[in-house]
């Protein structure tokens, strides 16, 4: 299946874009193994920006908030392959291979792998499928996913702590988390999961802490940040609306005027 500049084969995704493009999703739901063929990938987390250049292979852990930017090289195209390693597959693999569930993973949620000719060869072997040279069936997706896991474990057996930690986020400080992550545009239920709460528990705790609903708080927090950036930093509305968590410019203008009585362009 093709989605604009992406080719999707089950859990394998090939991206090829000729202009700088933001990622559509800001919540990483499953582990991802990625290889950048050309260009750069800029990943923004609440710990800052990390830039990955062509040739980089990295593992990204599930349950993360990340904003991504695909940056093509001069006069070229950004190209990358991602393999999503979902929990159902990993649990099955773990059971079949009698892998003991390790302690909760405490390492870097984005792990850059050292150069490895076998892993490079693995990614090269996927291109004929994306180029439609060979047909692709669901069984092949599972086979190639299994191959990826085998290669990762062969390169570094300790990666099992990354892959096979099936624990869910534990209950954390909601107020601190939301103040650090309000700019990520994700549904409320995902914020609930990431703070270790049910949706009902999240709303209840949120109301107690902030004395308002999550939706109202997020919008007001984002709009206050927008006002500051426009007035104090001289930013243009079109430069910031995506960065602070709005989906489109027209909604940003509407919400801003409703709150402050003026359009963003009228702020002085």
UniProtKB/TrEMBL annotation:
Gene3D superfamilies: Homeodomain-like. InterPro entries: ExsA-like_N (IPR054015), Homeodomain-like_sf (IPR009057), HTH_AraC (IPR018060). It comes from the Bacteria. The keyword Transcription applies. PROSITE patterns: HTH_ARAC_FAMILY_2. GO terms for molecular function: DNA-binding transcription factor activity; sequence-specific DNA binding. Residues 172-268 form the HTH araC/xylS-type domain. It holds the Pfam family ExsA_N. Keywords: DNA-binding, Transcription, Transcription regulation. PANTHER family: ARAC-FAMILY TRANSCRIPTIONAL REGULATOR (PTHR43280), HTH-TYPE TRANSCRIPTIONAL REGULATOR EXSA (PTHR43280:SF2). This is AraC-like DNA-binding protein. The lineage of its organism: Bacteria, Pseudomonadati, Bacteroidota, Sphingobacteriia, Sphingobacteriales.
